[in-house]
Amino acid sequence: MEVAEAKDAGALVRSRPRPVLMIPLRRCGSHALRLRLSFNPDFYSPYPLHIVDFMPLVPLYGDLSDDRAYFRLVVDVVGLQAASPVKWSNVVFDPRQVFEAIRLERRSVHRVVWELLLRAGELHGASIVMDKSLDSVHYADELMSLFPQLLFLNVVRDPRAQVASMTRAIIHDFDAALNAKAWVDAYRVARSLAERYPERVLTVRYEDFLADQESTLRQICRFFGIEYLPQMLDVTRSHEAQQLSHMSALWASNCFAPIAANTDKFKTQLSLKEIEVIETLARDYMALYGYELMTDAQAEISDSMMARSRERSEIAKRRAWQDLEQGDYRDFILRRFRSDYLQQVRNRLDDLPMAVAGKAGNAGDAARMA
């Protein structure tokens, strides 16, 4: 019995799925692609942890070479997964097992996150595991050092349409200029990755997916080394898509076929002034990816303008949380639960004695390790 278990364990290690990170920014149509690819059992991509929200806490753990500090980090990342508004099906993690599996490897919060993803992928029999935490594009270099086989699915979307979507989503800023800047920052990193590692990055345009779903999905499947399945074209048969559509207004359209005409919807959602600001900031990438300008793209953008945008966004965000509480209390409570969990972790770390947390003189080292 022990020999058989050992063989099984060895097979499990050898057959670990290949990791993929979707990049570069949320509201690019990422759920639409993920849900369709998920019809193939060789592909596994659960609701993302969005570890970017956890990153400000990492320096508070101190020196991660200290087993106590690293185990505390493992426990809290497992807790973050449990606090997610969308649960990973049929997966429960034991922090002790996770810690023992990775404690002799290079220590990083990203290594912890991916251990959870890979273990879940193994349980589902997948050969490809994709993390849809698109913001992690900003940690791509470290991720590649941790996982030499890592691939990137770079999903490009018209910045005007993407910013219009972002500006109406509680997970982003409520200002077109701020979101356009975030768009440019993320796309700059993604472009650099594609130039440095062309064999590891596949770039697809969301608009091309809308125009021809099959061609785009076949292209992605070839890149991943998995089979394209015709049922990918009928997202209405996806149980997860149906479930998500009822959980949040952000995901309401995921259970329907995409509407190509919506590519121009931003024209009614944004003012011409907002469009000019977006085009001014993003014009180089718009030219690169084939998006035509509507304006001269010569808007004046100053530090004082961005500061005013930040002030307006914060006011609008507080109002949006209030509206969400009144309009969809379940979505509100689930999102606040995650937010409250992150705050509780911060409070607990702040209360730890300096010597125990390993904060004295080690915060900078921990930040570099993360």
The global form is globular
Structural class: alpha/beta
Measured as a percent range, the helix fraction is 40-55%
CATH architecture: 3-Layer(aba) Sandwich
- Give, in spatial order, the strands making up the sheet with the most strands: 2-3-1-4-5
Mean pLDDT: 87
Q: With helices defined by DSSP (H or I, 4 residues minimum), what is the helix count?
A: 17
**Considering the protein shown, what is the CATH homologous superfamily?**
P-loop containing nucleotide triphosphate hydrolases
Binned strand content? 5-15%
Main sheet record: 5 strands, parallel
Distance between the termini: 40 Å
H/E topology pattern: HEHEHHHEHEHHEHHHHHHHHH
As for the CATH topology, it is Rossmann fold
Q: Can you tell me the CATH class?
A: Alpha Beta
Count of domains: 1
Identify the quaternary structure here.
single chain
Radius of gyration: 21 Å
Q: What ranges have pLDDT less than 50 throughout 5 or more consecutive residues?
A: 1-13, 355-370
- Report the strand count: 5
Essential attributes:
globular; Rossmann fold; alpha/beta; disordered N terminus; 370 residues
Please, could you describe this protein's structure?
The protein has 370 residues and is of the alpha/beta class. The chain has one domain (18-369): P-loop containing nucleotide triphosphate hydrolases (Rossmann fold), CATH 3.40.50.300. Helices cover 55% and strands 6% of the residues. It has helices at residues 2-14, 30-37, 67-82, 95-102, 109-123, 140-146, 159-166, 176-196, 206-211, 213-224, 239-245, 266-269, 272-289, 303-327, 329-351, 354-357, 363-369, and strands at 18-23, 43-44, 128-131, 151-156, 201-205. A 5-stranded parallel sheet has the order 2-3-1-4-5, with helices on both faces. It is globular and about 55 Å long. The model is unreliable at 1-13 and 355-370 (pLDDT under 50).
